[in-house]
Amino acid sequence: MSARTTSRTWSQRPGVLTVLDTNVVISALLFRGETAAIYHSVITGRIIPLVCPAILSEYVRVLVYPKLKLSDSEIRYLIDNEIGRWFRMLTEKLPDDVWVPEDPSDDQFINAARVRPGTVLVSGDRHITDIRESLPVRVLTARELIEELRR
């Protein structure tokens, strides 16, 4: 039974595998708001975020943006104690297929989600959400994931 056709709700399924787009992670870690539900679901094990070295580098690249005003120790804390603690590192070689020619950096998220069957990509990036029906993985926005988690 695929993730799309399962009759069980997400709240009944332990540990739904996800790949979280950078903006989703930053929002959940720093701004809480609506994405606090995603953060809570990560720390309670309802969703299991997957990360690869390239995506982790992307997270770090964004965390050091001056507009976020994070100190080196705060960034280290987020990487070591939040991401490092709750995210699972993919050790498999990722496919290198091109899905988003307009923004090739988005391909790593799609390809990472392809590594483990049933993994859901969570993104608000229009380059991804606009083509989600043609992608080989299920794509949800943060809001859609939150709605799924509440069911």
Secondary structure layout plus pairing:
Elements: E1 16-20, H1 22-31, H2 36-43, E2 47-51, H3 53-63, H4 72-86, E3 88-89, H5 107-115, E4 120-122, H6 126-129, E5 138-140, H7 142-150
Helix pairs in contact: 1-2
Protein model, in words:
It is built from seven helices and five strands. With 151 residues, it is an alpha/beta fold. The protein has one domain (10-150): Rossmann fold. A five-stranded parallel β-sheet has the order 3-2-1-4-5, with helices on both faces. Helix 1 (22-31) packs across helix 2.
Summarize this, please?
The protein is α/β, with parallel strands linked by helices. It has seven helices and five strands. The chain has a single domain, classed as 5'-nuclease (Rossmann fold).
Strand line-up across the major sheet: 3-2-1-4-5
Number of domains: 1
> What structural class should be given to the helix and strand makeup?
alpha/beta
Name the CATH class. Answer: Alpha Beta
Query: Which of globular, elongated, flat, extended, rod-shaped describes the shape?
Result: globular
- The string of secondary-structure elements, in order, is EHHEHHEHEHEH
CATH architecture: 3-Layer(aba) Sandwich
Question: Could you list some keywords that capture this structure?
Answer:
Rossmann fold, 151 residues
